[in-house]
């Protein structure tokens, strides 16, 4: 039976109708994470690299909240608003997954919530 994990301080969903993290059958599913600083609305300044770093830092906070880390990630889906940013996003992504990276799909989209340029969904295995 799926279960929502308790809220992670600084990464509350507010009035958003979803759980930021759910565990089921040995897998941990993270809702899409964006490049915002916990407690502040909107994208971090500094462009795609800064936004990607903040996004992946948020992923790390959620993983640590359930006793996991980046090495437990098995699948990522990256949503990228502009494929011109692919190389810069990928360079930062490699810092977080330097060896044996998870499987990944990168999808081009026309828009993301609140005008973010990148978002990531993550699945980790316990």
Label this structure with key terms.
about 130 residues; globular; six-stranded mixed sheet; alpha+beta
Question: How would you describe this protein?
Answer:
With 126 residues, this protein is of the alpha+beta class. It has one domain (3-7, 18-125): RutC-like (60s Ribosomal Protein L30, Chain: A, 2-Layer Sandwich). Helix content is 24%, strand content 29%. It has helices spanning 47-65, 86-96, and strands spanning 3-4, 21-24, 27-34, 73-80, 103-108, 118-125. Strand 2 and strand 3 form a beta hairpin. Helix 1 packs parallel to helix 2 (86-96).
What is the secondary structure topology, with strand pairs?
Layout: E1 3-4, E2 21-24, E3 27-34, H1 47-65, E4 73-80, H2 86-96, E5 103-108, E6 118-125
Parallel strand pairs: 4-5
Antiparallel strand pairs: 1-2, 2-3, 3-6, 4-6
Helix pairs in contact: 1-2
